[in-house]
Structure formats: structure tokens, C-alpha cells
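Retro notes, item 3 of 5
We never archived the inputs for the nicotinamide-adenine-dinucleotide complex last cycle. Fixing that now. Sequence and ligand:
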Amino acid sequence: MPETDLVAEMEAEIRAKPVFLSDVNAMVARAARLVPMQDGLFEKISVCNETYVTRFGVRLRGRMWTFEGWRAVHSNHPSPAKGGIRYAPDVGVDEVEALAALMTYKCALLGLPFGGSKGALKIKPGDWNDYELERITRRFAQELTRQNFLSSSLNVPAPDVGTNEKTMVWIADEHRRLKPQDINAEACVTGKPLAAGGIEGRSEATGRGVQFALREFFAHPKDVERCGLSGGLDGLRVIVQGFGNVGYHAAKFLSEDGCRIVAVIEHNGAIENSGGLDIDALYNHFAAYRTFEEFAGGQFAKSSSDLLTTPCDILIPAAREGVITGENAHAIAARVIVEAANGPITFEADAILRDRGVVIIPDLFANAGGVTVSYFEWVKNIAHMPFGLMERRRRQYENTLLTSTLERTLNTKFPDTIANLGGGREIDLVRSGLEEKMRSTYAQMSHLWNNAEGIDDLRTAAYVIALTRIKGIYEAIGI
Ligand SMILES: NC(=O)c1ccc[n+]([C@@H]2O[C@H](COP(=O)([O-])OP(=O)(O)OC[C@H]3O[C@@H](n4cnc5c(N)ncnc54)[C@H](O)[C@@H]3O)[C@@H](O)[C@H]2O)c1
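Structure as it came back at the time:
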């Protein structure tokens, strides 16, 4: 390509992509003014500790291909650092560092014992078949292991945009081969398939968390009043952008709660139905054709970018960052925006929406279901025991303390039945554990929003809680 074309292309790329990291830092800084800290501590908290960049070659299709990847560790005040790995053709270091920073604040907000990290590989997954993706992923895992950016005690990735449980199990297997002496090697990554060290409910977890986040919001009538809505979720019109892991599960669970999913927006077109889309039928169609075109249950629209501003009650961006900007924020019709994606609203748009009374349920809370269930998976791997079994063992132990002969006999003869009845199945434990985390976290955020001076929105409330916890850790450690 001639050099002038290359420069024009780079300029277009910079214009097209807002500086995501500055948006995140500006939002955190707004909240940091409300958290008293010793001089210089906020700067230490907000910078990214280290970013590893790798360029490695893989021989495929008769030639050498060079791939570029990153793993950023924003913080490791508690270790391991935790955060997904993204495969996308337009990803860059700014995006990875911004996402790593969000992980720090998300884990602190939810009270999970992790620092923040994120990784990415510049690749279009659809250009490669499974065999090729496996070879590329294993090579990436070798680099991360070699540099200590992959390990159960230091740095634990998970799925994100363009990656899934297959990607995770390739990473885990490659790491295990390189570290055969590490009894916890399996816990070097979460989001694995159930048959290979995963946990029930991880693939649905982020969408499930979005559902729980909205349920909690609607369980607080005073909060709901602030955006001009009333009542519950039943019958509300929802638009979802992105129909991948997070968008699909969020749409599915919210339609089960009685919401009408009136539009789903993808990168190559959108589908609308004012009466509500059949999400499972849409999922099957999209899985088969990778487009909504010719789906019988709705009207297809080729141009999808302006659909974010279509009338609805709840808007759920679940694709990429920076989709609601200073340009379209004035025209958003939704009264509630749930940030299922990381960073979908720019700093500028955030201010416009707040002025307009739109309630934003912020990313560090709304999409925390994924990392919360990842935490359960990591604990399960480290403990080398499935949760169902842990629960049964606990009940067997309790049984020895039971006084009634009948209870003792039932517990001994039918331990599975009793464990299942009491929520001993892994999926029940995962769901109830997640629900409890989302409920207690929302209650703290809502309390600050309604009572603390200077906290006028849920995002600031979330960051104030996260920063207060992180500050407490730094002060306790003494550095
Ligand atoms: N997977 C998780 O557990 C998890 C956890 C927390 C946060 N997130 C965040 O949720 C978002 C989505 O992640 P995912 O795991 O669902 O990814 P995914 O790759 O499974 O799905 C993303 C979907 O968005 C679509 N998309 C991309 N650009 C788009 C655009 N401009 N307009 C409309 N659709 C577009 C893609 O075609 C794809 O179907 C990301 O921001 C990610 O960081 C994911």
C-alpha cells in the first residue's frame, strides 16, 4: 500500500475510535474527588501497572503469519489479576488498558479478591477455521505463560468478544503442558467447558447478571421514579445491541421476565418487532446464517446504526465500547441504559444522558456476572472439588449433628435428593451466589445514590465504593 494511503487509513481509524482509556479515567476521576486519599495514591491506583505486547508467528496455509497480542495488568494489589481475552481485528493497546482498568474497579465493587487485567489478539476470528484458531491460540498461550501473564496465582483470563469456552480450554491445556508440576494449572483460565474444569452457568453468567441488575433496579421504586418509569419489568420495551454471548443471554432472560425485546441490532443489520421478538427462534436463525435477514418473526433493517435511538424503555448495548457518544446521546429515547458491554457510553455522552434524566446502570456493575461466576470457577478449580460435592459433604457432616433419627436416615439414604432440594446442585449454588452478590452490591450503590452528598448517579456510586475498597487495601499494605 502507498505510504499516503496508509497514513489516511490510520487517521481514519483514530477518528473512528474515541480514546476509550481517557473516558474510563475521566469517569473514575469524577468519583475520586469524593474519596479522601493521601497525596499521590489516586495516580497509583488509576495507572496501568504493566502491559505486555507480543508479536509471534504461526505457519499456516503454506506461509508465515504474524499476530500481535497484548495482556495488560492494571492492578495486582490482590492477585491474581483477572480479565477476559478479546479477539478482534480493530483492537489496540488503548482498548486493552481501558478494559483492564474497568476490571480492577469491577472486582473491587463486587468484593472479589482479584486485580484487574485484560488481553487481546488482533485477529478476525471468522477468517480462520477451528484448527487454525487452536494453533494460534496455543501459540499465544505459550507467550503468556513464558512471561508470567498466565497462571492461577498471577493472571487468569476468561472469554470476551470473539472468544469462547473452546478458546479457554485450548489456553488451559497448553498452559498445563508447559507447567505439568503446577497442581492448579487448570485454574489459569475461567470460562472453560464443563467437561474440562468449567462451572455450570458460566456461559450464561454475564447475561444472567444483566437480568439480576435490572431486577434489583426495579425492586427499588424510588430509583425507578428518577427515570420517569414505574412498576416492574413486565411489558417494558427493550432494545439490545449485539447478539453474542452477553446480548443473547440478556435478551433471553429478560423476555422470560416479561419484557418485550422490540429490536436486536447486529453489525450487519437489525431486526425489529414491536410485539416482541422470539429470542430462541432468532438465536437459531442467527447461529445458522450469521444475519437476521429473512428471519420470519420481524422486520429486517440493513442499516442499524440509527436504531439505538428508536423509542424503547430500556436500551442494552452489549457489543463494543464507544457506541453512545456526544453525537447520538441527545437522541436516545430509552429511560434506562444497562451497560452490558464494557464502556459503551463515552464520558461526553454520560454527562448528556445524566442531564436528560436517563438512568445508566454502569458496566462495572451491570456486566459483573461474568467475573463473579469466574470467581466461583476459579475457587472450584483451586479446591479440586465440585460445588455440588462440597455441599453434600457439608450436609453429611451436619448429619452427624442431627438429633432426629428420621432426619438422619433420610440424609444418609438420599443425600443427593436432599442436597438437590436444599440447593446443593452446582447451578443453583452459582445462580443464588450471583444473585446475592448483585443484590447486595446494588443495595450499596442505591444507598449512596439516594443519601450521599455529591453522588448523583449509579456510576459515581459504584466507583466510590470500588475506590474506597482499593484505597483500603493500599493503606493496609502500607505501600
Ligand atoms: N463474555 C463475557 O462474559 C463478558 C463479561 C463482561 C463483559 N463483557 C462485554 O460484553 C460485550 C460483548 O461481549 P460478548 O462476550 O457477548 O462478545 P461476543 O463476541 O460473543 O458478541 C459480540 C456481538 O456483538 C456484535 N457486534 C460487534 N460490533 C457491533 C456493532 N457495532 N453493532 C452491533 N453489534 C455488534 C458481534 O457481531 C457479536 O455478535 C463486550 O463489551 C465485552 O467486553 C463480556
